[in-house]
Write a structure and sequence with these properties.
The complex is a heterodimer of chains A (337) and B (534).
Chain A lengths: L1 H28 L17 H10 L6 H13 L13 H36 L4 H15 L2 H15 L23 H7 L3 H38 L2 H8 L4 H31 L1 H6 L5 H10 L3 H29 L7
Chain B lengths: L2 H23 L12 E5 L14 H10 L4 E3 L6 E3 L2 E6 L5 E6 L13 H13 L11 E8 L2 E6 L6 H4 L10 H5 L9 H4 L3 H6 L7 E7 L3 E6 L12 E6 L3 H9 L5 E2 L4 H5 L6 E6 L4 E6 L11 H10 L2 H9 L3 E2 L22 H10 L7 E7 L2 E2 L2 E2 H13 L4 E7 L1 H9 L5 E6 L7 H7 L6 H5 L11 H12 L2 H18 L2 E7 L1 E6 L2 E2 L15 E2 L1
Helix pairs in contact in B: 10-12, 11-13, 17-18
The chains are: A mainly alpha (337), B alpha+beta (534).
């Protein structure tokens, strides 16, 4: 298996180069004025100002020249400077990635665990009240638009009940810890500030619940379907005939086999949410990669678009690899070679 | 129970306890220590924190509060007041201005504000060729006569120059500090200045606040400048929290997580629980307009009569009702109400009979088809998509079929500057108090942005020969004569009907009841040193 992992890791840069080249061509082929976030509307008809801006940002060069300069800089670790934020793209990504990962990991943990538990219960008690309730809950979760549930949750839990704080990762008046991991809950613990830890955790709850509800809906329906399939297999009947307890049958014999297709979805959803949690990020003023990607695309911020593409591409490739490895653990019949 | 099963059950119990613990935490009160910083919720649209490069609404707020200008704008939004310049005088034809600096003014590092800093700032603003470089277009030379005296010479008379230097982008920078960090005012500053990144993390002004921290798309933090003595600064820490939409801003305000919300639209304002909030709706100087481009590549015939017919076909009251729930005002000319020359202008009114009559006279009694591309965005609380649909509906009443295409702003900019867009909608906010900027942007004379966008090069007939001369007259005069010249310019732009303002949305000032001193400034948006917490 080690050889397989090493081989997959070695092919990563090549695949990323392909993704980057394609993204470069597509973004530059898009109609629009990349100077929109650089030159003010008042000055955009001033040829001197436009020429100065083009020269400063390298947009006066031909497309192949721009491409080779970008790849050369990329190989030396320079992702360029964002047209919009005026900061190095690498810095932008490093500031935003922990925020997204913190949110997505919390949502995946909540969504996956709840989804698996509900899926197992729904399959075990098929066509009974638990099953109907779990399916309804899952259906609402997976079909409710995040922008709607986010605003409703905010209104109920933050404005009406006052149980949880409003948007943002921390109380706006609090000072965020600097220069650590970027995961505010972890950083607060590292500096031993429990007040800050609770504040960060409280702010994480609502967006994680909203995003996790969607994940839960997808996972629970898939787990239920897989469990129903597995529970009808002969080896389950055989296990029960041998006197195995119901919990053991469900968890040891059925769930382990039913998890294989679920792992694919969990892995795919995780990778997707790295750049796809944009609506949740927008509603909860969560400064993450998703909203950065959308803002970059809207303003034709080429360096930022490329940076997000690299992060998104790497997330998908690494998650695919992790999912393949997880298969082997979940099902010993699978051999990676 | 076997060992393996024991381990499994133990793991399950631990997982269940962790899960229950995490869920229970949601019910615990937050214990984070909150200080007494004032929090403002707004969509941070910053494109630079360098006064020579930035150009945006939040930039106006930042520059106004961190970099003092020579001249300020009074609370009446019309009178100029001393700021860094304790006094000033102009020569007879208003082509040379002498500013006498306040000897007590100091930058945040304690060094005095001197004439050399003014010279350096103005020259850098011009030479960097950034967002607001046009402000220095009239300037031919800046001379530091002595440490406290600056003489600015212009290429011609310009009675609006004092207003220009009240624009936040003309805030004075500590030249020694900035130059040591890679800034330059040299003629080739557009390529040799390397200080933009430095300005993102540092400030070098003499205003009431200094930059404490800036995280793009997250927050902008200010700290009171201990060297600032012009006014008493009541709040030591202010945070502008990036909050994109009006509903979330309202929720932050209602839940007490923000003290001021700056971009709540009138519809959202109606839903606010005002028990602990002050909500005031006031007219703004921003407006949205319809723009016609007779010289656009795909434009149908858009003679003056046809353009005037379009002006008469629009239901101005209906537009205000439809887009901002009635919370807006009509703007007769592309100069905001209350600016020089706007008093007594004829209010726009829908007159479908007149519109049909003009179309018949122009040879298109049954109307025509026209393409309209517009930026798919919300501006000053107005959804441009809704606005365009209302315009489409209004024009259909006189037989004009409008084909709408929403596009991203960056695409719109590309198209409006390229082949042109026959009919579009856009928006404008003042850079300072003064009417010349509108004539220089919207006027139908050689070189203005909208003369080019309307296709003046393909169709020179859209030029209004009186505009250039009248502007020159307005800039060379003062008082009533100046007012009269701007009035004539406004009437000319109304008759040209290239730019048809349709709504000036009201501004909602929403804040916690403990906030005092909140007001709207025409030049600077929000002046933080006037704020206080009860």
């Amino acid at each position: 298996m080690t050889r397989y992992i090493v081989r997959r890791l070695l092919s990563l840069p090549l695949l990323l180069l392909g993704i980057v080249s394609l993204a470069f061509l597509i973004s530059h082929a898009t109609q629009g004025d990349p100077l929109a976030s650089i030159v003010s509307e008042r000055q955009m008809d001033n040829p001197e100002v436009v020429a100065a801006a083009k020269a400063r940002w390298g947009l006066d060069k031909s497309l192949p020249e721009q491409y080779f300069i970008y790849i050369r800089n990329l190989l030396s670790g320079d992702l360029g400077t964002s047209f919009r934020t005026k900061q190095p793209v690498a810095q932008d990504l490093l500031e935003r990635l922990p925020a997204t990962l913190e949110l997505v990991i919390a949502a995946m943990l909540l969504g996956s665990t709840t989804g698996i538990v509900l899926g197992v219960l729904a399959a075990r008690f098929r066509d009974r009240v638990i099953d109907h309730a779990a399916r309804l809950w899952a259906l609402i979760g997976s079909s409710t638009p995040v922008f709607w549930s986010g605003l409703i949750f905010l209104y109920i839990f933050s404005v009406v009940l006052g149980w949880l704080p409003g948007p943002g990762r921390l109380d706006a008046r609090a000072t965020p810890p600097e220069g650590l991991t970027g995961f505010l809950t972890i950083d607060a613990l590292l500096i031993g500030d429990m007040g800050l830890f609770w504040d960060a955790l409280h702010h994480l709850m609502l967006p994680a619940l909203v995003l996790g509800w969607t994940v839960m809906g997808i996972v629970s329906r898939l787990v239920r379907a897989s469990m129903l399939d597995v529970l009808s297999q002969d080896y389950i009947t055989a296990a029960r005939a041998r006197g195995a307890g119901e919990v053991r049958v469900l968890l040891n014999h059925a769930l382990r086999n039913a998890l294989v297709p679920t792992l694919t979805i969990i892995g795919f959803t995780f990778a997707y949410l790295i750049t796809g949690a944009v609506l949740t990020e927008a509603i909860f003023s969560w400064t993450g990669i998703g909203s950065y990607a959308v803002d970059a695309a809207r303003s034709l911020d080429y360096p930022a678009i490329m940076g997000v593409t690299i992060v998104g591409g790497a997330a998908f490739l690494l998650t695919n690899l992790a999912t393949d490895i997880a298969y082997a653990f979940a099902d010993p019949r699978i051999r990676l070679s | 129970m076997g060992r393996q099963q024991h381990v499994r059950w133990a793991s399950l119990k631990v997982a269940a306890m962790l899960y229950a613990g995490v869920t229970a935490v949601t019910l615990l009160p937050s214990t984070a220590a909150a200080d007494d910083a004032l929090v403002i919720a707004r969509d941070i649209d910053i494109n630079s924190l360098d006064p020579a490069r930035g150009f945006c609404d939040t930039c106006q707020i930042y520059f106004s509060n961190v970099y003092e200008t020579l001249v300020g704008l009074g609370k009446d939004n019309a009178t100029l007041t001393p700021r860094l310049a304790a006094s000033w005088e102009a020569n007879a034809d208003q082509s040379q201005f002498t500013f006498n600096l306040d000897p007590g003014a100091k930058f945040s590092d304690g060094s005095p504000v001197e004439a050399k800093d003014v010279k350096w700032t103005f020259e850098r603003l011009k030479n960097i060729k950034g967002g607001a470089a046009f402000l220095m277009d009239p300037v031919t030379s800046v001379e530091a006569k002595d440490a406290q005296t600056v003489v600015v010479t212009l290429s011609g008379p310009n009675s609006e120059f004092l207003n220009i230097v009240s624009a936040p982008y003309a805030g004075i920078i500590n030249s020694d500090v900035a130059a040591a960090s890679g800034a330059t005012a040299a003629a080739d500053a557009e390529t040799t200045d390397k200080a933009e990144a430095w300005f993102l993390a540092n400030s070098a002004g003499s205003g009431p606040y200094v930059l404490a921290n800036y995280k793009p798309d997250d927050e902008l933090r200010f700290k009171a400048n201990p060297e600032y003595k012009r006014t008493k600064v009541a709040i030591s820490d202010i945070v502008i929290k990036h909050t994109k939409d009006a509903v979330t801003q309202a929720q932050l305000l209602e839940s007490g997580n923000a003290d001021i919300a700056m971009q709540i639209d009138p519809d959202t304002a109606k839903t606010l629980n005002t028990e602990n909030l002050n909500v005031e709706t006031i007219p703004s100087y921003n407006f949205l307009y319809v723009a016609l481009a007779p010289g656009a590549k795909t434009a149908p015939k858009l003679s003056k009569e046809i353009r005037q017919a379009i002006g008469y076909a629009l239901d101005y009251d209906g537009i205000i009702e439809f887009t901002v729930g009635g919370q807006g005002t009509k703007t007769p000319a592309p100069i905001p109400n209350g600016f020089p020359g706007t008093s007594g202008l004829p209010e726009p009114k829908q007159d479908l009979e007149k519109a049909k009559e003009l179309l018949a006279k122009a040879g298109v009694p049954d109307g025509f088809e026209i393409d309209s591309e517009f930026p798919n965005m919300n501006s000053y609380g107005v959804d441009l998509s809704l606005l365009s649909q209302k315009i489409q509906q209004d024009l259909s009443k006189v037989g004009i079929k409008v084909n709408l295409t929403p596009v991203e702003f960056s695409v719109w900019r590309d198209h409006v500057r390229g082949d042109g867009i026959p009919l579009t909608v856009s928006f404008y906010a003042p850079d300072y108090y003064g009417s010349a900027q509108y004539v220089q942007f919207f006027g139908m004379m050689e070189g203005t942005p909208w003369f080019n966008r309307a296709g003046g090069k393909n169709d020179p007939s859209i030029a209004n020969p009186a505009t250039a001369e009248l502007l020159k007259k307005a800039l060379a005069s003062a008082g009533e004569e100046q007012e009269k010249a701007y009035h004539e310019l406004a009437l000319g732009m109304i008759e040209d009907r290239i730019i048809i303002p349709v709504v000036s949305p009201n501004l909602v000032l929403a804040s916690s009841k403990k906030v005092t001193g909140l007001r709207y400034s025409a030049c600077c948006n929000l002046l933080m040193d006037e704020l206080a917490l009860q």
